[in-house]
């Protein structure tokens, strides 16, 4: 007689995705190991270790109630088998894994499950947390973080204020305004009753999840508070916990370096438009990148360009003003050092010029995308504008003017056809597209 398996393990036994096993093992939601075959028990035990590493918190019960766990348990996120055996864990070195998501079990669309930090950073972070409490190397991460002075202040707080995030390493929190932090709390998707600027409805674990995510990588928070559905150039947030994020799938920007001229022109035009929207928008926030690389941008299947990784995105509130990061050294603690050196310093918010992101993009991304693809006279104009907008010593006004002129050159080089579904067929009838 075949051993009797719990529903999650039984699904995996029939070829279901490995990550469901991770969550099943971590939450002990399947039947007793005594009813499993010895080989299956061994694999379940090994999945516990990888699941703990992947999540970044002790057990899945630290993530129970979050959107990512709910989607896994409801089988709304499904993965193909990475290796021949359906019960083997995926390679730990990969930064992301392709998957499919459905909210009706009928229509499926591609998504990505991403590590917010690398495996090496995971291990270093765990060691730092345990060492901060003089605990063994395999200590309870959640228990140690709960005892910190910063988290004790969070427990007492009714509202997320700038002093509670001082010293955290994210550029997003370098100089936060109260308006920005209220937006974080009001739009935080991992609590049952979002919408208030006060944290009265947050449980202790809700506060720890939010603090931990802000300390490790603020990318999931940015997806929630500036959603693509409202016109922001970010993919859709589908869930996160610990060091794991699920979001809409995109192809990385570098895969398009060999694109044909009309597609290259379209992507460059979009990228310059994204930077413009980050600089000038209705909410009066100024977004800037501390650094850029091709992997930070992605393209959806409809041809639209989005920010794929917002972890280096800083935010300055032009409407309310931002509280300067004062007494940074005094506010550093274990949450300041989870994924980077504790001595890492970010530039003053007052020192960030409007041209900051444009210069980086014109230097590092657009030349590789646009070089040698157009008739000589047009190519010369493009190269000239790239040289100007990538010249950091020029005044802001000249950099912005060069970027605008480059957009004007690129605009007629784009074509109107179904490959650019994000603006087709509108582009046939309206010059705006």
TrEMBL record:
Keyword Thylakoid: no
Domain FAM69 protein-kinase stretches: 211-390
Record-linked InterPro entries: DIPK2A/B (IPR020519), FAM69_kinase_dom (IPR022049)
Protein's UniProt keywords contain Transferase: yes
Cellular localisation: Secreted
Main subcellular location of this protein, as a coarse class: secreted
One Pfam family in the UniProt entry: PIP49_C
GO MF annotations, alphabetized: kinase activity
Domain of life: Eukaryota
UniProt keyword terms in alphabetical order: Kinase, Secreted, Signal, Transferase
Family under the similarity heading: Belongs to the DIPK family.
Protein name: Divergent protein kinase domain 2B
């Amino acid at each position: 007689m075949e051993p009797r398996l719990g529903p999650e393990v039984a699904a995996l036994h029939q070829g279901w995705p490995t990550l469901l096993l991770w969550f099943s093992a971590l939450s002990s939601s399947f039947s007793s190991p005594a009813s499993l075959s010895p080989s299956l028990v061994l694999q379940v035990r090994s999945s516990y270790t990888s699941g703990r590493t992947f999540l970044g918190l002790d057990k899945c019960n630290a993530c129970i109630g979050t959107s990512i766990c709910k989607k896994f348990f409801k089988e709304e996120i499904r993965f193909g088998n990475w290796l021949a055996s359906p019960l083997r864990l995926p390679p730990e070195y990969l930064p992301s894994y392709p998957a499919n998501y459905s909210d009706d079990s009928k229509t499926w669309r591609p998504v990505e499950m991403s590590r917010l930090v690398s495996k090496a950073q995971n291990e270093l972070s765990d060691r730092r947390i345990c060492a901060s409490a003089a605990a063994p190397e395999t200590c309870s991460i959640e228990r140690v973080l709960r005892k910190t002075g910063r988290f004790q202040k969070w427990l007492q707080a009714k509202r997320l204020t700038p002093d509670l995030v001082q010293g955290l390493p994210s550029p997003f929190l370098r100089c936060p305004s109260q308006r920005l932090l209220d937006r974080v709390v009001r739009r935080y998707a991992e609590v049952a009753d979002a919408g208030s600027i006060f944290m009265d409805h947050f449980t202790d674990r809700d506060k720890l999840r939010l603090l931990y995510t802000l300390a490790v990588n603020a990318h999931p928070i940015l997806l929630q508070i500036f959603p693509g559905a409202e016109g922001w150039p970010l993919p859709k947030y589908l869930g996160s916990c610990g060091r794991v994020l699920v979001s809409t799938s995109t192809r990385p920007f570098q895969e398009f370096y060999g694109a044909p001229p009309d597609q290259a022109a379209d992507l460059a035009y979009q990228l310059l438009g994204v930077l413009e929207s980050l600089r000038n928008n209705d909410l009066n926030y100024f977004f800037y990148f501390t650094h850029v690389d091709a992997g930070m941008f992605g393209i959806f299947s409809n041809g639209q360009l989005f920010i794929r990784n917002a972890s280096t995105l800083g935010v300055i509130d032009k409407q309310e003003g931002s509280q300067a990061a004062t007494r940074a050294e005094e506010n550093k603690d274990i949450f300041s050092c989870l994924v980077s050196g504790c001595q890492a310093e970010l530039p003053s918010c007052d020192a960030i010029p409007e041209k900051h992101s444009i210069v980086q993009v014109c230097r590092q991304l657009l030349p590789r995308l646009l070089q040698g693809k157009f008739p000589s006279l047009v190519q010369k104009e493009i190269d000239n504008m790239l040289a100007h907008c990538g010249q950091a010593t020029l005044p802001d006004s000249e950099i912005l003017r060069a970027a605008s002129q480059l957009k004007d050159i690129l605009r007629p080089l784009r074509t109107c056809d179904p490959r650019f579904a994000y603006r087709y067929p509108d582009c046939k009838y309206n010059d705006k597209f």
